[in-house]
Amino acid sequence: MKASEIATMAAVALFFAVVPPALAQDARPNIVLILADDVAFSDFGAYGSEISTPNIDALAARGTLFSNFHASPICAPSRAMLMTGVDSHLAGIGNLPESAPLEHRGQPGYLGQLADDVVTVASRLGAAGYRTTMTGKWHLGHGEGAHPAARGFDRSFALEASGADNWERKSYLPIYDDAPWYEDGKPADLPEDFYSSEFIVDKTIEYLEESRDEGRPFFSYVAFMAIHIPVQAPREFIEKYEGVYDEGWEALRAARFRAVVERGLLPAEMELGPMPEGLRDWAARSEDEKRLLAKSMAVNAAMLEAMDFHVGRLIDYLKETGQYDNTIFIVLSDNGPEPGDPLAMPGFRQWLWWNNYRRDLETLGEKGSYAFIGPEFASAAASPGAFFKMQAGEGGLRVPLILAGRGVARAQTTDAFSYITDIAPTILDMAGVAATEEFAGVTVQPMTGRSLMPLLSGAAAPVRGETDAVGIEAAGNAALFRGDYKLVRNAPPYGDMRWYLYDLARDPGETRDLSEERPELLAEMMAEYDAYAARVGVLEVPDGYDQTAQLTTNRIHDLVRANWPGLTAIMLLLLGGAFWGCHRASPRVWRALHG
User: Fold this and answer.
1) What is the pLDDT of residues 120-144, one digit of tens each?
2) What's the rounded Cα separation, in Å, for the pair 104 and 110?
3) Among all residues, which ones are annotated catalytic?
């Protein structure tokens, strides 16, 4: 038996030791899994942010805060790993389904939904007697059998797409016809007073309340849309941040860097690297541009504070109903901050107009408006990491993680490496449920993540040794972590597809490439990455691949394919009409030319 397995068993035993054996079944902990969308490493107040997040900060103060936790750079692969504890390719979602190359579609690692041979943590907990609920963004497949209702959740109100408007049932990108919300697997409408963060918590409380008398512990997956595009928030939250970002992105990036280092979350001797090449200079912006950009960032901050406010409402409910003390909270983000500028997409301004979206300064963030922060402020939010969402730099991968509750060490910060596949086995350990490789009589993919319970309880740290490697790949962006070192490749438009080597213990800002200085280590880690890619079924993206452009390509392909019979009939009618017109016109044309 490995030392890590012994430590895990000891931690679990310690965890349950506080409960008399006769009551262990009834006293198993409730578990609330809170997933924020596109929240950067330094976005929460506990991590050094200027944004007010008192409820999440309070959880950090009574629990364990992670400073070296990583996710995929893209949301759907992260969510697949979060739910299953299995590498995203083995789970069937190696890339964002909407932007995967067409030639990858249908391949084992690129199914666009969870594979049949992976089991969600909800299914495992449900089989062990837990009540299970899910509210918010799902984005793990569409159609029958792909929704939360078919993946272990007793009750669910889920958004099928990658995002949507936060004020009404409305698409946020031209690749979707509407906002596909489903309750328990069936199409559902939204209330007139809908605001995403408020509604997601309302539904969670509703589901918990309707089964509270059953006496069983619960697992609630609360998947917020904050702070995904479009960033939107109530005016009362936005007003608090008016003027906060008037000095621009360089000033914010430097301030976040100082705050992170002052809190001891990253080494004091580290350097803050430059922003990615090609980004704009704040000083060169016009005054009107600066006002709109600063207001957009204010809306972004307000949206995160509004999310925290509603997290507080859920905490209050659990306290009022006597369930708080027996509830473990897990708070994390799916990837780094969103750098996208939808206005750069051809025709997007017209699409906004057609869909009654506006971008006027006064009402930015409110109902009917459309805001985003862009790559420069995303780089500032990711400080002190390099790059941001959709890239494999630390700004895209290193995200916040907070755990609090029974069995979790209080007021602890850990710099031990951890990965998003570790969350599912940790939850199962907390619940006393075995992560078996057979479920419901069927052999399933074993979890690739490791339980963090030994680290959380203080029984052992870290849960991986210096030679244990963890690979990541999504849309051509790739990394391999081993001990203190990271091998990384970033894809265009901000990367160059070259491999770099960094010592993250001393240089988490990724400012000093060691690939030429340590060629033997580079070769070792390259070989380990190749082995990882072959093992999980990574497919290399084609030359010239661009995620944003692929979104449009895939949308056109799917529309043509779905409507091919009708399009064929229209084309035949048009061709027939043209032929008939030419036939009728030909004598007149002949006479006009030769008469």
Assistant:
1) 999 999 999 999 999 999 999 988 8
2) 6
3) 75, 139
Q: Is the peptide bond before 230 cis (omega within 30 degrees of 0)?
A: yes
Contacts of 340 (CB under 8 A, 6+ apart): 229, 372, 374, 375, 548
State which H helix or E strand residue 400 sits in. Answer: none
Tokens of 299: 């809306």
Q: What does DSSP assign to residue 391?
A: S
Quote the CA–CA distance of 182 and 178 in Å, as a whole number.
Answer: 12
Lookup result for tokens 């770099």: 500
Token digits of residue 384: 């002190």
**Burial, 254: exposed, middle or buried (Cβ in 10 Å; 0-12, 13-18, 19+)?**
middle
Dmax (CA) of the chain: 108
Between CA 74 and CA 589 the distance in angstroms is 60
Residue 569 buriedness (CB in 10 A; 0-12 / 13-18 / 19+): exposed
Q: Give the pairing of strands 438-439 and 401-404.
A: unpaired
Pairing of strands 469-474, 186-187: unpaired
For 278-326, the pLDDT digits (tens) are 999 999 999 999 999 999 999 999 999 999 999 999 999 999 999 999 9
Tokens of 211: 């089964």
Contacts of 560 (CB under 8 A, 6+ apart): 567
A 10 A CB-CB count for 587 gives 9
From CA 68, how far away is CA 427, in angstroms rounded? 19
Q: Which amino acid is at 515?
A: S
Other Cβ atoms closer than 10 A to 567: 13
User: How far is residue 505 from each of residues 67, 323, 360, 544, measured CA to CA in Å?
Assistant: 11, 40, 45, 33
- Rounded CA-CA distance 194/97 in Å is 27
H or E element that contains 459: none
Give the β-pairing of 69-70 and 418-419: parallel
Q: What is the pLDDT of residues 199-242, one digit of tens each?
A: 999 999 999 999 898 989 999 999 999 999 999 999 999 999 99
| pTM, to two decimals | 0.91
Phi, psi angle pair for 153, to nearest 5°: -100, 125
pLDDT confidence band for 54 (50 / 70 / 90): very high
